[in-house]
Amino acid sequence: MNHDEINTLLKPKTIAVVGASATPGKIGYTVVENLKKSGYKGAVYPINPSASDILGFKCYASITDVPGSVDAAVMCVPVKLVNTCAEDCGKKGVKGLIVITSGFSEVGRKDLEEELVATARKYKMRILGPNIVGTLSNSDKMNASFAPFLPLDGKATLITQSGALLIAMDAATYTRRVGFDKMVSIGNMCDVDIADIIEWLNGDESTTCTSLYIEGLKDGRKFIKAGRASKKPIIALKSGVSAHGAAAAASHTGSLAGAAKVYGSAFKQAGVIQASDLDNLFDRTLALSLMPPLKGENLLVITNGGGVGVLATDAAERYGIPMKFAPKDVQEELKKHMPEFGSAKNPVDLTGMAGTEWYAESVRFAISHPWVDGLIVLYCETAMTNPLEIAKGIKQALNEAGIKDKPVTVSYVGGEKSAAAMSWLVENGIPAYAAPDLAVNAMAALREYALLRETAKEPDYKSNDAARKAAMQIISAARADGRDALTEIEAKQVFNAYGLPVTSTELAKTEDEAVALAKKIGFPVVMKIVSPEILHKSDAGGVKVNIKDEAAAREAFNTIIKNAKAYKADANIHGVAVQEMAPWGTETILGSTNDATFGPTIMFGLGGIFVEVLKDVTFRVAPIDKVQAAEMFEEIRAAAILKGARGEAPRDRKALSDTVEKYSSMIIDLEDEISESDANPVLVYEEGKGLKVVDARIILKKK
Amino acid sequence: MNHDEINTLLKPKTIAVVGASATPGKIGYTVVENLKKSGYKGAVYPINPSASDILGFKCYASITDVPGSVDAAVMCVPVKLVNTCAEDCGKKGVKGLIVITSGFSEVGRKDLEEELVATARKYKMRILGPNIVGTLSNSDKMNASFAPFLPLDGKATLITQSGALLIAMDAATYTRRVGFDKMVSIGNMCDVDIADIIEWLNGDESTTCTSLYIEGLKDGRKFIKAGRASKKPIIALKSGVSAHGAAAAASHTGSLAGAAKVYGSAFKQAGVIQASDLDNLFDRTLALSLMPPLKGENLLVITNGGGVGVLATDAAERYGIPMKFAPKDVQEELKKHMPEFGSAKNPVDLTGMAGTEWYAESVRFAISHPWVDGLIVLYCETAMTNPLEIAKGIKQALNEAGIKDKPVTVSYVGGEKSAAAMSWLVENGIPAYAAPDLAVNAMAALREYALLRETAKEPDYKSNDAARKAAMQIISAARADGRDALTEIEAKQVFNAYGLPVTSTELAKTEDEAVALAKKIGFPVVMKIVSPEILHKSDAGGVKVNIKDEAAAREAFNTIIKNAKAYKADANIHGVAVQEMAPWGTETILGSTNDATFGPTIMFGLGGIFVEVLKDVTFRVAPIDKVQAAEMFEEIRAAAILKGARGEAPRDRKALSDTVEKYSSMIIDLEDEISESDANPVLVYEEGKGLKVVDARIILKKK
C-alpha cells in the first residue's frame, strides 16, 4: 500500500545513513549529527567501512551487516556509488531510499536516475529524491537531512523542490513565527512525487495544511487528482511563471517547466490555493493550518484605528472578498462597546480608546452572530493599551463563544510589544500579521479554499468510443497520405464525429459538383480552396463568401482554382470546399495544445481583438465537463458579452458549454494523435439558438 | 516666506505647550514629557494657570506671560478653549500653532475650524492640524507629540493623515528596521497641508524621501504641483481606494474622498510613486530613502540559490521591470566566480557554495559594468556560510567600486543570523528585505521614480481667450434660456470654438432649410431631433442616418418631427439637426468630470464594449498637453488597436493627442461653467487622416 511505503520514507522506525562520515562538515556526518540532535527515537545505523563509531552510534561496513531491519536508508555517498549501495539496500530489505546525493537528471544524467529506479523496483523500494536535503519532522523528532535543525513546530507540512529554499525557510520559521510539522525536500522526483506525499498527508495526524514550493511538476494530471482528493488545504508557490523566469528555471532544475499559464488553471482544477510570493506562502500557510475555511461572504472587521480599518477594506476588495455594511442589529449591539464617535458600520471602529474589554465584548458578540462568516481583528498600538492583554482578551472571547467553524485572523501594527502579542496569538492558534492587508489576504485564502472545495471536482467524463473510431479512420487516412495536418474538411469530420456543430462543408472537384453541393447545403454558401500546400487561403484569393446562386457558384469555383494555380503553380489542389454560410454571431475561439506537463489542455476566449489584442483567454486541463466549461466563460474579462451586454440578448452558453465538453472529450480520446487543434471562430447565437463551428483545424502528433 | 513659516512648526526654536498638565496620563503632560525625553534643545514653556512647574519647566498662567519669543505653540486644550488660546498666541507673537485638539471638521464642526483659521490669519500664524498627534523629528531631537518616543532614525519623513497610524508606525520602525527622520501628523489640514510640507522638505537636509499616508486631499492640484516640484522621491499610500473603503473612510475623516480612480492618475501626474499597502510603504520608503533611481532597464540578480533567483525573476516581470539575459562579456567574467554548475545568465546563480569572496567579486564587477543599471543581491541562508560576513563583503565591494548612481537592493531568506545581517546592511545604507520579491519590488519603485521624473511635468498649456469668449456666449444664451444642458448643436459650437473637429451640424427649422443645409454640408447626411426634452433621440424615432438625396432629406425631416411629437406631445422642438455623416473610423471616447478634489478631469477610452464591458479607460487631471495625452493612449489595455492591430493601418494618434489637448483647454478654461462633458464617439482615422467628433454633450454647473 502506498501509505505504508511512504511511511518508510517520512516516518521510518529505523534509519541507516549510507555514506556516514566521522568528519564534521561532511554531509554524511551532519545527517548523523542531526538525527541525534533532533532526538530521533528509532535506531540509527551509520554505514562506513572505515569507522567503528560515529557520534556514539555503532558503525557498519555495509548495510548488509546491520543486525535489525531497516526502514529507510539516507544515501550520502558520491553519485557513482549510489546504485551499488542501492543494490545492497535492496538485498538487506530496506524499504525506502532517501537519496541526498546529487548529480542525476538535474545535470543531464537521467540515465543514472533510471538505473537507480530500476534497482528500487527490483527490490520494491521507494525513493525520495535524488538531489535533496532530506526530510524533517517535528512530530517524529526526526531531522533526516543536512538542514541544521528542526523548524519551529507548526501544523503545516512543506514540500519543496528547492533544497536551498528548505534550509533558508527552516531558519526563517523562527524569525517569522510560522512553523511546520514536516519539511520534505522532494528533489528530482524520480519515484515518489509531490502527489504521493499529498495523498500520504491525508493520513498524517500532525499535518493540517500542505504547503508547496513548485518549480515544475512531472505528471500534472496525477497532481490534479491528488489535489482534488486531498482532505486538507494545499497552498502552492509556483516559481518560473514569468517568461524569463521559466527560462531561468530551465537552466537550474531538471524538471519540465510546462506552459506557465496552464499552471494557474491546473491549480484551480486541483483545488490548490496559490501563493503570490514567498512571504505570501508563509502567511497563507499560517492561516490555512490554523483556521477553518471562510464559508460565506460576510466578513466583519473590528479595529481601534480608522486608518487600518480602511486599509483592510481596500485589501478585502483587492483580494476578492469585498466587505459590506453590517446589518442593523449587529451595528446596534456593537455600538454599545465604543464611544459616541466610533463606527459600528464595518469596519467596526472601536476607536483608540478601545481596551481589552471592548475588544473582548465585540469579538464575543461578532463571532457568535449568524450574519458573521469570518472575523478580522485589527489593532494599532497605542500608548494607553496593552497589546498582549488585548490578545489574551480576543482569545478568551473566542474560547467563550466556542465557535469552531468560523475563521479569525488578526493584525497588529506596532513595535516590540505588538510583536510579542502576535507571537502569543500564533502560539495559541490564532494567525496574526504585522499589517492589516496581510490579515485580509490570509482570510482571502480561507475563502478561496471554501470555494475551491466546491468546484475542484473530477469531471463527469466518459470516453466516446464510436466517435473515436470514426475519427481514427479520418486521421489514419491523412497519415497514410503522409500528412500531419488535416484539411479543414477532415478536421470538421473529426469534430462532427464528436458532435460538434460544424458548418456543413463538402469537397467539390468540379464546377458541377460545386453547384450541386451548394444547392444541397442551401444558398448562400462560402467556397474555399482545399490544398495542403495553401494554408493562407485568403492570401491566395482562395476564399469567396456570400455566394447567392448557381451562376455565382460556377464563377467562384473557377476563379478560386485559377487564383490558386496562379498563387502556387505546383500546389496539390484537392478541389474547392463548399460550405454553409453561418449567420453572424458572437465570435468565440476554442483551442487545444498538448502541454508537456498536463497533456491535452483547452483554451477558450472571444474571437478577434479579444484574443489578438487583449489576450483575454482562459485555460483548462482536459477533460472537463459542462459545469467546468461554464466556469471558463466567467473567467474572461469580457465575460459580460456572453451574458448579453449592451442590450443584446444573452448568448447560448448552454450550447457553448456542451460544445466545450465535447471538444474536451475529443482531445482526450485522441490524446495520442492530436498535437493541437482549434475551432475558430465558433459563432454563438442567442439563448436557445445554438452555435456553429465555422472553421476547424487539427495538427497531428508526428509519429 | 512659506519655508520660514513651516520652519516654525516643524523646526521651532522655542515651544509653548498650551494646556500643559502636571497629571501623568494627560496629553498635556505627555507632550511636555516627550519634549524633555527626546532631548529637545529649545526652550519649553508649559502654559497652565494652576501649576508652577511641570517636569522641571517653569509654568506660565498665560502664553502672554512667557518672557522670550515663542515659535510654536502646541495646543492641547479642550476644543472650546482653542480659539481663545489662539488669540492669546497671536497677541504674544507666536508664529505657528500645532493643534493636537480634536473636535473640529472631523466631527462636523467646520465652523470651529474656520474661526481658528480666521484668528491665525489675523496674526499671521500658520496652523498644523487640528486633530493631530503632533510632530516628531530625530534631527531636531524633538518629540512635540503624544506619540511615546522618537522613531528609529532614518532618512525619510512620514506625513500621515491618521494619527493612530503614526503612533503604531512609530513603534513599528523599531521592529521593521525602517526609520524616519520626521513624522508629521497632518490632521484636518485647515491651513498647512501635505503640499506645503512636501515643498518645505525640499530644503530639509535630513530628509531624502517623503512618505505619505493619505486618506483624502483637499486641494488636489496644489498637491500635483508640489509633487512635480519636489526634488526628492515621494511615495504615497492612499487608503479608501475600494468602493466600500471610500464609504468607510468618509465615515471617519473630515476630508473629501474624491473619485478613487482619479487619485492613481493624479499621483502619476504629480510624480508620486504609489505603495500598495502598509508593508509596501515601509519597504519602498527604505529603498527610496537610501538609493538613487534606477535609470535604465538592465537589472542583474546575483544569488546563491536558484529558487530565490527564479522567484526574483518572476517578481521582476510582475512589478514591471522584466529581466534579460546578461551580455556575453558579463557572463564570461561572472563564470569565474562560481563552480561549473552555477549559471551566469541572469539570475546569476553562484550556487550554495558561494561564500563572501564570490559574492564580493561578483558584486564589484557587476556594479561597475556599463551594461548593469541596477543590482539585486539575494542570499539564501546555508549552514556553511556566514550571513553577516557576506553582508560586509557586499558593502565593501560596493565601496571599492565607488559607483554612486546605480541602485542596489538585497534580500536574505533565513533566520536570526540573516535578520542581523539585514539590520547591518540597512544601518550601512543598503536596503535589505526578508524575501526576494520585496527586494525586486523596492527596485521597481526606484525604476518608477526614474520614469516619473521624466514624465511628471507641468503641461505646456495656455488659456484660449478667444475660444473662451465664444463659448461663454453660447453658454450664457443657454443659461438665459433656463437650461443647464446644452443641445448637441450648442455643445458642438463650444467644441468648435476650441478647435475640436466636430462634424458640421446645423439647425433646420423647416423642411426647406433641412434640404438647403444638407446640400451645403454635402450628402449623405444624418438628421436628428433637437429638443431639450428629448434626450434619448433614437428611442423617440428622432434619428435618421445615411440620407442620400433631397427627397430623402424632406422625408426624414417630416418623419422626425412627427415621431418626436408622437413621443412627447408637449416637447419644445427646436428643429432638426442636419449633420455631416462621418466615415466610419476607430471609435474612441473623451469625457470630463469635475472631481471634488482635483477639479476638471479627463477620461479617455475606446468606444463601445471597451468602455461599457471592459471599463478600459484612463484618467488625467486637466490641463494636459499633447505629450501627456499620448501617454493616455498607451495606458489602456487595448492600446494596440490605435497602433494598428490585426493588419490595419495605425490610427492618427497625432490628431488624437492634439484633440485631447484642446479638449483639456476647454474644460479648464470653462471650469466654472462645465460640470461634465463628452465627445462620444470620436472617430479616428488612419495616420494623416485626422478624426471627427460625431456627438458632443455638455452639462453646465448649476448656478
Automatic annotation (TrEMBL), chains A, B:
<keyword id="KW-0547">Nucleotide-binding</keyword>
<comment type="similarity">
    <text>In the N-terminal section; belongs to the acetate CoA ligase alpha subunit family.</text>
</comment>
<keyword id="KW-0436">Ligase</keyword>
<dbReference type="InterPro" id="IPR011761">
    <property type="entry name" value="ATP-grasp"/>
</dbReference>
<feature type="domain" description="ATP-grasp">
    <location>
        <begin position="492"/>
        <end position="528"/>
    </location>
</feature>
<dbReference type="InterPro" id="IPR036291">
    <property type="entry name" value="NAD(P)-bd_dom_sf"/>
</dbReference>
<dbReference type="InterPro" id="IPR003781">
    <property type="entry name" value="CoA-bd"/>
</dbReference>
<dbReference type="GO" id="GO:0005524">
    <property type="term" value="F:ATP binding"/>
</dbReference>
<dbReference type="Pfam" id="PF13549">
    <property type="entry name" value="ATP-grasp_5"/>
</dbReference>
<dbReference type="Pfam" id="PF19045">
    <property type="entry name" value="Ligase_CoA_2"/>
</dbReference>
<dbReference type="InterPro" id="IPR043938">
    <property type="entry name" value="Ligase_CoA_dom"/>
</dbReference>
<dbReference type="Pfam" id="PF13607">
    <property type="entry name" value="Succ_CoA_lig"/>
</dbReference>
<dbReference type="InterPro" id="IPR013815">
    <property type="entry name" value="ATP_grasp_subdomain_1"/>
</dbReference>
<protein>
    <submittedName>
        <fullName>Acetyl-CoA synthetase</fullName>
    </submittedName>
</protein>
<dbReference type="InterPro" id="IPR016102">
    <property type="entry name" value="Succinyl-CoA_synth-like"/>
</dbReference>
<dbReference type="InterPro" id="IPR032875">
    <property type="entry name" value="Succ_CoA_lig_flav_dom"/>
</dbReference>
<dbReference type="GO" id="GO:0046872">
    <property type="term" value="F:metal ion binding"/>
</dbReference>
<keyword id="KW-0067">ATP-binding</keyword>
<dbReference type="InterPro" id="IPR051538">
    <property type="entry name" value="Acyl-CoA_Synth/Transferase"/>
</dbReference>
<dbReference type="Pfam" id="PF13380">
    <property type="entry name" value="CoA_binding_2"/>
</dbReference>
<dbReference type="GO" id="GO:0043758">
    <property type="term" value="F:acetate-CoA ligase (ADP-forming) activity"/>
</dbReference>
